[in-house]
């Protein structure tokens, strides 16, 4: 197997793992909406989603998570803009999980 093929195969495995983990991340974000997660925990989830989403080509998830991460860092995660972004991120994550099932 060529090196490029091995890299592509490994990326496919990592991409599938990312999609599989979205359900847990989505549940954690929903918990935040009802019980307010620790800011550091929430920031870590959003940072991970922003980075991995971008790595695997899920630009909408990456963009939304990045914007929410910035709001979290500014202590502005409870406002109406954050609520709109959380809804959009949840919808994007749900759509991806359903399309990959």
Automatic annotation (TrEMBL):
Residues 7-101 form the HPt domain. The keyword tRNA processing does not apply. Coiled coil: none annotated. Gene3D superfamilies: HPT domain (1.20.120.160). Keywords: Phosphoprotein, Two-component regulatory system. One of its GO terms (biological process) is phosphorelay signal transduction system. This is Hpt domain-containing protein. It comes from Rhizorhabdus histidinilytica.
């Amino acid at each position: 197997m060529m090196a490029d093929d091995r890299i592509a195969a490994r990326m496919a495995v990592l991409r599938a793992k990312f999609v599989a983990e979205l359900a847990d991340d989505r549940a954690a974000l929903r918990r935040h909406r009802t019980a307010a997660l620790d800011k550091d925990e929430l920031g870590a989830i959003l940072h991970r989603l922003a980075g991995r989403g971008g790595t695997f080509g899920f630009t909408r998830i990456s963009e939304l998570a990045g914007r929410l991460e910035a709001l979290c860092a500014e202590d502005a995660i409870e406002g109406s803009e954050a609520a709109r972004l959380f809804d959009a991120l949840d919808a994007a994550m749900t759509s991806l999980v359903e399309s990959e099932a």
